[in-house]
């Protein structure tokens, strides 16, 4: 079975939208997803947060799409927190089989409720909501071993030429952005010999 590497970050509202949609989009297709949490290091050159007009547009556009998906998006008060902690906690949740539930809970707390998802209090609350042991999740957030695993994922991202999230890697082909999920699905269907729309005949058709 082919694997789709899915790079995401709890810092990105578009990663939230993709995190929610991807399992639905890939449902029924013979692929597995390897979700890899990452976050931009200091001085990251492609950071939209350092361009005020771009950051304002990102939040405006993400809120428009979130509303269409039935989600409520609030611009977080703080752009940055201690990003290592929620991403390390996510890996613990994934180890316990709760990756989707915990990931969605973290995103909703960050972009729906404007909570500091790196704090012990919030991580404990989210753990309980997902049926996880709160103390274990908080411990994982500060565990050097879990931090090393996050850094391993970020090193892999460099090898995949990651420059932003969400990004999906399928058979070496990169798809960047929530709005490229349809193109990812199209590529998978194509490789399986399944029908895809003829966009040359109808450029306005959906990719799938």
Low-confidence stretches: none
Strand arrangement, major sheet:
2-1-3-4
Number of distinct helices? 8
Could you tell me how far the N terminus lies from the C terminus, measured between alpha carbons in angstroms?
Answer: 21 Å
Description of the molecule:
By secondary structure, this protein is α+β, with helices and mostly antiparallel strands. Helix content is 48%, strand content 11%. Strands 2-1-3-4 form a 4-stranded mixed sheet. The mean pLDDT is 96. The two termini are 21 Å apart. The protein has helices spanning 13-25, 52-68, 84-95, 99-111, 120-129, 134-141, 144-159, 181-191, and strands spanning 2-8, 31-37, 167-170, 173-176. Helix 5 (120-129) crosses helix 6 (134-141). The protein has one domain: Glutaredoxin (3-Layer(aba) Sandwich), CATH 3.40.30.10. The chain is globular and about 55 Å long. The protein contains 8 helices and 4 strands.
List keywords for this structure.
4-stranded mixed beta sheet; 4 strands; 208 residues; alpha+beta; single chain; Glutaredoxin; globular; 11% strand
Q: What is the gist of this entry?
A:
The chain is of the alpha+beta class and 208 residues long. The chain has eight helices and four strands, in the order βαβααααααββα. A four-stranded mixed β-sheet has the order 2-1-3-4.
Could you give the topology of this structure?
Elements: E1 2-8, H1 13-25, E2 31-37, H2 52-68, H3 84-95, H4 99-111, H5 120-129, H6 134-141, H7 144-159, E3 167-170, E4 173-176, H8 181-191
Parallel strand pairs: 1-2
Antiparallel strand pairs: 1-3, 3-4
């Amino acid at each position: 079975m082919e694997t789709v590497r899915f790079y995401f970050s709890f810092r990105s509202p578009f990663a939230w939208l993709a995190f929610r949609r991807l399992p639905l989009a890939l449902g029924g297709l013979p692929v597995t997803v390897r979700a890899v949490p990452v976050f931009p290091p200091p001085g990251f050159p492609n950071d939209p947060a350092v361009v005020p007009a771009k950051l304002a547009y990102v939040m405006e556009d993400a809120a428009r799409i979130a509303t269409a998906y039935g989600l409520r998006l609030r611009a977080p008060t703080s752009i940055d927190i201690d990003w290592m902690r929620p991403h390390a906690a996510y890996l613990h949740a994934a180890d316990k089989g709760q990756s989707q539930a915990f990931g969605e809970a973290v995103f909703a707390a960050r972009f729906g409720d404007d909570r500091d998802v790196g704090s012990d209090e919030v991580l404990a609350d989210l753990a309980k909501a997902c049926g996880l042991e709160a103390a274990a999740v908080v411990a994982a957030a500060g565990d050097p071993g879990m931090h090393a695993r996050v850094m391993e994922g970020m090193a892999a991202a460099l090898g995949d030429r990651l420059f932003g999230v969400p990004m999906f890697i399928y058979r070496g082909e990169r798809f960047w952005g929530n709005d490229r999920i349809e193109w990812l699905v199209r590529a998978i269907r194509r490789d399986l010999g399944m029908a895809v729309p003829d966009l040359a005949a109808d450029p306005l058709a959906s990719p799938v």
